[in-house]
Design goal:
This is Response regulator receiver domain protein. By secondary structure, this protein is α/β, with parallel strands linked by helices. It has five helices and five strands; from the N terminus they run βαβαβαβαβα. β3, α3 and β4 form a beta-alpha-beta unit.
Length: about 130
């Protein structure tokens, strides 16, 4: 799942992940990301990876990250590993290091936009996510 309020970023990022064989759900804000995550848990079809933009309306990425981790912690199946989550931010977001560092234990990676095929390839290798083709 990719949560990003910018339509161009959503489309480009979907194309990148699709090139690796992933089916991608797109949402436009943190509230939709939380709801889509809840549905995936209820239907027992978990996401392989969630990418959250840090700055979005109707719950930003940090809020969505906290809520998703809370939902996971309260789920009945405690044997499952947390779903990998990557936080995305613009290059200007690099200045907000304190917010990024404070959430490091809750997420698996930080990505600076615009994303590229090389960055996603490195992320997938780091997370040991095989191509979905």
């Amino acid at each position: 799942m990719i949560a990003d309020d910018d339509p161009i970023s959503r489309r480009v990022n979907k194309d990148i992940f699709s090139s690796f064989g992933f089916d991608v759900d797109l949402v436009v804000n943190g509230r939709e990301a939380i709801e889509r995550f809840k549905t995936s848990i209820q239907e027992n079809v978990p996401y392989a990876l969630i990418c959250l933009d840090m700055v979005m309306p109707f719950f930003d990425g940090t809020y969505a990250l906290n809520e998703i981790r809370h939902i996971e912690a309260n789920a009945n199946d405690t044997d499952k590993a947390p779903i990998p989550i990557a936080m995305m931010t613009s290059k200007e977001g690099k200045r907000n290091r304190s917010s990024i560092l404070s959430k490091r234990s809750l997420c698996h990676a930080y990505l600076f936009k615009p994303l590229s095929i090389d960055v996603i390839d490195e992320l997938l290798i780091k997370l040991k996510l095989q191509e979905q083709t």
